[in-house]
Amino acid sequence: MTLIDLYSILPAATLIVWALFLLLANFWFSKRQPVWTPILAGAGLLASLVVSIFFTGKPMAGFGGFILVDGFSNFLTPLFAVTGIFAIGLAYDYLRRMGIQRGEYYTLLLFSISGMMLMASAGDLIIVFLALELLSIPLYVLSGFAHPRVDSQESALKYFLLGTFASGFFLFGTSLVFGAARTTNLTDILAIVSSGEADTMLLLIGSALMLAGFGFKIAAVPFHSWTPDVYQGAPSPVAAFMSVGAKAAGFAALIRVFSMIFPSLAAELTPIFWALAALTMVVGNVVAIAQTNLKRMLAYSSIAHAGYLLMAFVPFGDAVTRSNSVASALFYLTVYALASLGAWAVLIGMEGEDNQGTEISDLAGLGKTSPLSAAAMTVFMLSFTGIPLTLGFWGKFYLFRTAIEGGFVTLAVIGLITSLASAFYYLRVVVKMYFQEGQPEFHWNFWTSSVAIFTALALVVFSFMPGSLFDLALRSMLTGS
After folding, report:
1. Same domain, yes or no, for 251 and 273?
2. Are residues 175 and 282 in the same domain?
């Protein structure tokens, strides 16, 4: 192993080694000083964040092209680390309050984040699969972490069964792509496809099967059925982490893989991405209107936002708009991460035992009893909708612009109409908080409240300077840093 090989996996390797250390340290701290376990987990993520910024800045290929470090991975790796730090902040008080405080939670979280980092840097389909499993297996356990609560065990079982089924689809698709191109290395696949030596039909079928596997991870329709049940049954910090981290990792792999093989199959796959994007936006937003539980509403909201993100893939076959497509997707992922983590932070503050306090009606009167939390929740709902003076407006603006520049005006119109429809259920939350009487109990905690306040401020402040964040995403193209 060369020094370049070591540098290429350093952020993920740092996290894995730290997780193993934390697993041993937990035997000492869990009984005596349980607060040290999340602190050490946060320190590990901070170390991985520093490593990803200062040691992997230059483009490089490690392990013979199995790992690719470029602007794309350099953008997403810090995002995963920051998401993990926020997830720890959301978890500590919640786990203690629910009586499920166990140190293994943070170890599993670190392993899952390391899988996300490897997925963003994968240069080979084998690494994509291994990273997918490293990401998923800890989440199967974390979904059932509220044992012996029945709904938590049910969510873990559903997620495990459907997740392994989706992994099988991806693995079968990988085998077909290997049969078509005689390699699993993404760069080599691109070269073979460009030379016309690949079996196009086999490659197309394999790509479709891999897309089905990725569709499960990003909760795209019709692979979305697990999402509302798992989000409702899993501990809320786990659902918050899944809604951001797992989705971002799925899109990272989707961009990485299809940036290599999609241009050559654009004519065949563009209608599929068009239909997936439109169907996911429509189903996610329409079904969300009927939800009365805030967890399920956020689950269908997550599905709808996966549809908006899929809009970036429709014009992906055009070399002229491809850079804007990737940048728009990365920009929107960042915006969605901030809004989703913040919304879940407020929900966690509201939640009591046995999922009490998670109905939308339970928010009535929050504007009076906890004005700061209500104001933050208002920002998140407005950002989800895409209303100006929030970063969510610019996220949708860039996505719609990308679709229009690619010539897919109808898809942009569908996105606009579904965004208007989403205003009904997002603004319903605001109406409940400020215009209906109630005495909701908000469990004030420094870390949870800090996540809510920080993300709300970020969504408002950066809305006045969206160009700088978009330029950062634009420089994070796969071809450089």
Report:
1. no
2. no
Give yes or no: residues 94 and 231 share one domain. yes
Residue type, position 144, single letter: G
pLDDT block averages, 10 residues each, the chain of length 481: 84 92 79 76 92 76 86 88 93 86 89 93 92 92 86 89 90 92 88 83 89 90 89 91 89 82 71 92 94 93 93 75 81 94 92 81 90 93 93 93 90 94 93 88 84 94 90 68 40
Q: Tell me: do 277 and 136 sit in the same domain.
A: no
Q: Which residues are CB-contacts of 479 (< 8 A; sequence separation ≥ 6)?
A: 70, 71
C-alpha–C-alpha distance, residues 66 and 207, integer Å: 19
**Token pair listed for 20:** 């193993």
Peptide bond into 148 cis (omega under 30): yes
DSSP letter, residue 70: S
Sign of CA dihedral 295, 299, 304, 308: positive
Which DSSP string corresponds to 73-142? HHHHHHHHHHHHHHHHHHHHHHHHHHT---THHHHHHHHHHHHHHHHHTB-BHHHHHHHHHHHHHHHHHH
Contact call for residues 264 and 199 (beta carbons, < 8 A): no
Three-state DSSP at 34 gives: coil
Provide the residue type at 269 as one letter.
L
Residue numbers of the domain that contains 64: 1-261
Q: Is 68 helix (H, G, I), strand (E, B) or coil?
A: strand
329 and 458 together in one domain? yes
Considering the domain architecture, whether residues 397 and 273 belong to the same structural domain is answered as: yes
Amino acid at 296: R
Nearest 10 degrees: CA dihedral of 375, 344, 38, 330? -100
Residues 319 and 354 in one domain: yes
The whole-angstrom separation of Cα 306 and Cα 391 is 17
Closest CA to 132 of 101, 156, 168, 106: 168
Which contiguous run of DSSP H or E holds residue 450? helix 446-461
If asked whether residues 180 and 240 sit together in one domain, one would say yes
Dmax of the chain from CA atoms?
Answer: 68
Q: Would you call 64 exposed, middle or buried from its count of C-beta atoms within 10 A (0-12, 13-18, 19+)?
A: exposed
Which of these three, 210, 230, 261, is where a domain ends? 261
| Angstrom distance (rounded) from CA 212 to CA 75 | 25
Question: For the residues of 259-325, what is the DSSP string, one character each?
Answer: HHHTGGGHHHHHHHHHHHHHHHHHHHHHHHHT--BHHHHHHHHHHHHHHHHHGGGGGGG-HHHHHHH
Domain end among 226, 261, 296? 261
Q: Is the pTM of this model over 0.85?
A: yes
φ, ψ of residue 294 to 5 degrees: the values are -65, -35
Number of domains in the chain: 2
Contact criterion met (CB below 8 Å) for 460 and 379: yes
Q: Look-up: residue for tokens 């943070």?
A: 106
The answer for residues whose C-beta is within 8 angstroms of residue 460's C-beta and 6 or more apart is: 379, 389, 390, 391
